[in-house]
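Schema walk-through. Below, the input block comes first and the output block second. Nothing else is stored per chain. Lengths vary across the set, and this one has 300 residues.
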Amino acid sequence: MQTEATDFADWMRLRQERMEAVLEGLLPAGSLMPARLHEAMRYAVLGAGKRVRPLLAFAAGEAAGARAQHVERAAAAVELIHAYSLVHDDLPCMDDDVLRRGKPTCHVAFGEATALLVGDALQSLAFQVLAEQPIAPTPAAQLDMVRVLAAAAGSRGMAGGQAIDLASTGRELTLTELEHMHIHKTGELIRAAVLLGGGCGSGLGPERAGRLDHFAKAAGLAFQVVDDLLDAQADTATLGKTAGKDARQNKPTYVSVLGVSRAREFAQELRGVALGALEPFGSEAARLRALIDFIVLRSH
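--- output ---
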C-alpha cells in the first residue's frame, strides 16, 4: 500500500512539474508587449496550485490510451480557463478576496483593470491552445473538445454557476439547489478536464466514455464538498487563500446545508460513486482511482 501511495505521489509530482513547464512555454513572455498584462498573466497561472484538473486530464488520457504530448495541451487549456476564473472570482465585484495560492490576488498585485484583462486573455489563450495543433484522433473529435470546454466555461457551466452563487448569498438553499449550483460552478470544468483528456485517445467506446463522464460528475461534486469542508475547518496558511470566507459572506455551502459530519459522509458517498463508475476499466484507471482519493482526502 505504501509503495502504491509513493508511486502515485511520484506520478503526480512529475505531471505537476510537466504542466508547469508546458504552461510556462504557452504563456507570453513577461517582456513581450504589453509587458504588464503578460507579466500579470504569468503571475496568475505559474508557480502554485495543485493542478487537479490537469492531473485528471492526464489520468483520463492514460485510461483512453492517449499520447501525453496531446493530453498536455488539453490539460493546459482547462487550467488556463480555471486560472482565469480564479482571477475574476477574486475581483471586488465578485468575492473581493486578497489572497490566492498563498500570495496577493491578481487585482491586488496589478490593479483591477489589468486583472480583468488577464482573465479575458487567459480565456482566449485556452481556446488557442486547444485548437492550434491536432491532439485528437479526428478533426471532428477535436472540434467536439472545443465545444465541451466552451460549454463548461459558459452560462450553462462555470459562469452560470458563479451567477447562481452570487444570487444565492444570504439565502438558504436546499441540497438540490446547492448541487445544481456546484454542478455548474465547479463540476463542469472538472468534467471537461476528464472528457478532454479522454478525448485525446482512441481507446474509449461509447459505454466506457459514459462511465468516464459519470466518474467526472461525481468527482466534481466531491471536490466542492471537500472545498466547503476545508473552508470551514482549515486555516488560511494551510489553504493558501482566505479561510472561513463563505461563512462570513453568508454563502450557502455543503457545511451550512448538511453540517460537517453529513458533508464528510456525502464526500465519501460521491467517492464511492466515482469508483463504481470506473469498474470496467481495470488497471487502466488506477490513476483516476488514486485521484478521487486525493480529492476527497486532501487537507488543502
